[in-house]
Design a protein that fits this description.
The complex is a heterotrimer of chains A (307), B (288) and C (294). Chain A contains 12 helices and 2 strands, in the order H-H-H-E-E-H-H-H-H-H-H-H-H-H. Chain A is mainly alpha-helical and 307 residues long. Chain A folds into 2 domains: 66 residues; 224 residues, MetI-like (MetI-like fold), CATH 1.10.3720. In chain A, helix 4 packs antiparallel against helix 5, helix 4 packs parallel to helix 7 and helix 9 runs antiparallel to helix 12. The longest helix of chain A has 40 residues. In chain B, the strands form 3 sheets. In chain B, strands 1, 2, 3, 4, 6, 7, 8, 9, 11 and 12 form a 10-stranded mixed beta sheet that branches. In chain B, strands 5-10 form a two-stranded parallel sheet. Chain B contains 9 helices and 14 strands. With 288 residues, chain B is of the alpha/beta class. About 5% of the residues of chain B have low confidence. Chain B has 2 domains: 132 residues, 3-Layer(aba) Sandwich (D-Maltodextrin-Binding Protein, domain 2); 118 residues, D-Maltodextrin-Binding Protein, domain 2. The chains are: A mainly alpha (307), B alpha/beta (288), C mainly alpha (294). Chains in contact: A-B, A-C, B-C. Chains A and B meet through strand 1, helix 6 and helix 11 of A and helix 3, strand 7 and helix 6 of B. Chain A: It holds the Pfam family BPD_transp_1. Chain A: It is found in: Cell membrane.
């Protein structure tokens, strides 16, 4: 074989590097996928045992409202009705996301479009700092400030969905805001320039161009915020009252999937019905956030600008 | 960038190497046992463990919480050396109590606590039962102020709740109400919510809450030792089979009179050696 | 409405919203610091905790928190970097990639107690790491990976394609372009994500209760041999972190000064995160300047 042909066919240094790099990144992503699959499998195998091993009817699990796994009802079936927790979880998640979104988007626009200097010097560090405050501390502030405040204004005990919403609002605000900022920053500058050149005011530019272009990113931020609200346990547990009752209004004690899960898991014996039922709640949590994700992804696709 | 990646890799490898190296060595540097379970018993075992370690160099006693259920399931599987529990293993279904050996190391009395503003200091056992069954809903029905009663329960399956339900409600189900799984939270909520009632171990009673006497009997250690105060439970340390080696020595240390007389009492538990009565898993009481 | 007036109104509203956020955040921080700072002293920061007497400190917990944070970030940063690069640069646009993305997002919504129990059954019992820093760091990695990966991917995507094209046009391979062009450009975003992740790790309690444990045996700070059980560096010792300590004394603490210890520890935690953030930002900026030859 002639040397030129050989040299041409030999893989270059770059090609080798490229191959190695691709392999490394592939290994990393596979590692994550393995972890995800392992956790899914782990939660599913425990959570499904309630239905297959303990023969609980899935429908009654989702629609009954009495949660007392160690007790049997009149028909001799264990009382595992997760409806109060489902309602509670959805309630606090949606409400806190609804309150947090305008604030996060407003702050995001302020930080990227109106006053970059102030935004980056003051708002951003403070917001990042807030992420580091442990949920226990949020919970205690909620308990000593928010709950008495609500009791004072609305009556009742102060514990309930409203208190949970307030605490979660502050907790998810940093996540949603910083992701909104990232999304807004990712909008190319020429979009803004083009709009301004057409004679649009700053607000028109923001509202008609920048926000539209950033919608998928903002929605992702909201999903992440909701995900955090959904999965948050310690803080919510302290202020929501943690009663497995269907909430009558926003200030009556309620519970979420996570609060019941967290408070019960250490007290149950692994493999028992009580324990399996709690894992079913965890599985439910996974499935519900899956549904959320798909929904938001769909909305995001609709709202996306055609690039 | 390359440098950073290399640096990371080196650090990671170095860490892994040290981790693996020490993994095989840590057992040689001394004996160690692990005790897991009841968060109510954890402070005592931890303190005793610390004291034991200072007196016996080279041993290591690892104490973790996690709840009675965790303690019993882990000791049943043999994953730990000692499983701490507030309940008799017989009281938990799905636990094979025969395979476990019970070591009762202390007694804990449980008292109903209320928000100081309710204006009630003594109730009868029947009244207490009616409160938790939802039949009495306002403190004025018991001669207190006109405040609605706010129930705060412990989490389902918790040892404290099981004990309270067994001796106060006698197996009846309380109405669904707020639940909290930690004593500190319960105390904080009762202390700050008007009309609230719950129950905690004696050692957690402080100025922020008011404890209730039942049928004129005050919640004191002395009343527990004679069983005049009936709401109490043993703190159990379970081993799988008869304890051996360090586990055996450590359990003997906890039962020794210096620990029982000083540490146990100082931390607000009642020494098991002071009990004048014995109670078995089914609740039968006999004089010692 | 006249567009100019609308512009003014909108700007005012945005100012008000930002103002409200700053007020909420400032009062929150103020509350924590005001309650906690009076309890902080040198003694508090350096002495070991007391299980039932007053006067305990948080020295060991503080060290544990930092050590655990470093280990967790050391494990999760390279993995998330690699995974993020794959998702943004190599992954094809198909259902498999979509499925991977969705599963990562769902993983991030798992309550941390589930991650903790997963870690307990897998790392503590299955791998026999015991209640240890290593188990804790691995659990935190599981908990941290989704957020970091997502962040790396987003930051890399934010880099305009012209940069990539320029790199490729110079004859660099895709991998080299990523390493030398794209990552340096995306670095500020990546660092912000790391800071957020680190903050979450620092304040996490539920995932650690069952993995790193809730006891903090006294450490011998003169012994730096990682194989010794009393050495601060030993990754196989149980390690209660600051956040777990706060959780523990709030839930079952019988120390007479539990409230003060908890307030002080919260304040220390917040201050530590603050210092950490500021320094990470400073070094991030310097790194950015150095790597982009600005």
């Amino acid at each position: 074989m002639d040397p030129i042909r050989e040299a041409m066919l030999k893989k270059s240094h770059s090609a080798k590097l490229e191959r190695r790099g691709k392999t490394i990144s592939l290994v990393c992503i596979s590692l994550i996928v393995i972890v995800v699959v392992a956790i899914f499998f782990f939660v599913a195998s425990k959570g499904l045992a309630t239905f297959f091993q303990n023969k609980i009817n899935l429908w009654s699990f989702l629609t009954k409202s009495v949660w007392n796994p160690s007790m049997k009802d009149a028909h001799g079936n264990p009382e595992v009705g997760a409806l109060p927790m489902i309602v509670g979880s959805f309630g606090v998640t949606f409400l806190s996301a609804i309150i947090a979104t305008p604030f996060a988007v407003g702050a995001g626009i302020f930080m990227t479009e109106i006053s970059r200097k102030w935004g980056q010097k003051i708002l951003q560090p403070v917001i990042e700092l807030l992420v580091g405050i442990p949920s226990v501390v949020y919970g205690f502030i909620g308990l000593s400030v928010v709950v008495p405040f609500i009791r004072h204004i609305f009556g009742g005990t102060g514990f309930g969905i409203l208190a949970g919403t307030f605490v979660l609002f502050v907790m998810i605000l940093p996540t949603v805001t910083s992701m909104t900022v990232d999304a807004l920053k990712a909008v190319p500058r020429h979009y803004r320039e083009a709009s301004l050149a057409l004679g649009a005011t700053r607000w028109q530019t923001i509202y008609r161009v920048v926000l539209r272009a950033a919608i998928p990113g903002i929605l992702t931020g909201i999903v992440f915020g909701m995900a955090r609200a959904f999965g948050e346990a310690l803080a919510v547990q302290m202020v929501i009252g943690n009663a497995a009752l269907l909430p009558k209004n926003l200030v009556s004690p309620a519970s979420t999937l996570t609060s019941v899960l967290t408070s019960g898991i250490g007290n149950t014996v692994m493999g028992s019905l009580e324990n399996n039922a709690l894992w079913s709640l965890a599985l439910l949590l996974l499935l519900m956030s899956l549904a959320f994700n798909l929904l938001i992804r769909w909305i995001g696709k609709k709202g996306e600008l055609n690039k | 960038m390359k440098k950073i990646v290399t640096l990371f890799t080196i650090m990671l490898l170095a860490f892994m190497a040290s981790a693996c190296g020490s993994g095989s060595n840590s057992k040689q540097s001394g004996e160690s046992i692990t005790a897991v379970g009841s968060s109510a018993l954890q402070p005592l075992v931890e303190a005793a463990g610390e004291q034991y370690q200072t007196e016996h160099l080279g041993v290591f006693i690892n104490v973790q919480g996690g709840g009675s259920g965790t303690g019993l399931s882990q000791i049943q599987q043999g994953a730990v050396d000692i499983g701490n529990s507030d309940l008799f293993a017989e009281e938990k279904p799905d636990i094979n109590a025969k395979a476990l050996v019970d070591h009762k190391v202390a007694v804990v009395g449980i008292a109903p606590i209320v928000n100081p503003s309710v204006g009630v200091k003594n109730v009868t056992m029947t009244q207490l039962q009616q409160i938790f069954l939802g039949q009495i809903t306002n403190w004025k029905q018991l001669g207190g102020k006109n405040v609605p009663i706010v129930l705060v329960n412990r989490a389902q399956g918790s040892g404290t709740r099981a004990t309270f339900e067994k001796w106060v409600l006698q197996g009846k189900q309380p109405i669904a109400a707020q639940e909290q799984d930690s004593t500190g939270m319960v105390r904080q909520i009762v202390g700050s919510t008007p009309g609230a009632i719950s129950y905690v171990a004696f050692s957690y009673i402080n100025k922020t809450v008011q404890s209730l006497s039942v049928d004129g009997v005050a919640p004191t250690d002395a009343n527990v030792t004679t069983n005049r105060w009936r709401i109490w439970s043993y703190e159990h340390m379970y081993t799988k089979g008869q304890p051996r080696g360090l586990t055996k020595r450590f359990l003997a240390y906890i039962m020794s009179s210096p620990i029982q007389k000083k540490l146990v009492q100082k931390m607000g538990y009642i020494p098991v050696t002071q009990m004048k009565v014995v109670r078995d898993a089914s609740g039968r009481v006999s004089k010692e | 409405m006249n567009p100019k007036i609308a512009d003014k109104v909108a700007t005012t509203v945005l100012y008000i919203i930002s103002g409200i956020i700053i007020i909420i955040l400032a009062s929150l921080l103020g509350y924590i610091l005001f309650q906690g700072v009076p309890h902080i002293s040198w003694h508090f920061l350096t002495s070991p905790a007391q299980s039932f007497e007053a006067g305990g400190g948080i020295g060991v917990q503080l060290f544990n928190s930092f050590y655990l944070l470093v280990l967790a970030m050391l494990i999760s940063t390279p993995i998330s970097l690699g995974a993020g690069i794959y998702l943004s640069e190599y992954a094809k646009k198909n259902w498999l990639t979509d499925a991977i993305r969705t599963s990562i997002e769902i993983l991030s919504s798992l309550p941390s107690v589930v991650v903790g129990l997963f870690g307990f059954l897998i790392f503590v019992l299955q791998f026999k790491f015991g209640f240890s820093i290593l188990s804790g760091a691995l659990a935190l990695t599981v908990f941290n990976l989704p957020l970091l990966t997502r962040n790396v991917e987003d930051s890399l995507r934010g880099v305009s394609d012209e940069q990539r094209e320029a790199g490729l046009a110079l004859g660099l391979s895709r991998w080299e372009t990523v390493l030398h062009v794209v990552i340096p450009e995306a670095l500020p975003g990546i660092i912000t994500g790391m800071i957020l992740g680190a903050g979450r790790v620092f304040g996490e309690a539920a995932a650690l209760i069952y993995t790193a444990g809730q006891s903090a045996p006294a450490l011998d700070f003169t012994n730096w041999n990682p194989a010794n059980i009393a050495s601060p560096l030993n990754p196989f010792r149980p390690a209660e972190t600051l956040a777990v300590h706060i959780w523990k004394i709030n839930s079952e603490g019988i120390q007479p000064d539990a409230v003060a210890v908890s307030a002080g520890a919260s304040a220390v935690l917040v201050i530590a995160v603050l210092i950490f953030n500021l320094s990470a930002r400073y070094f991030g900026n310097r790194l950015f300047k150095k790597m982009t030859a600005a």
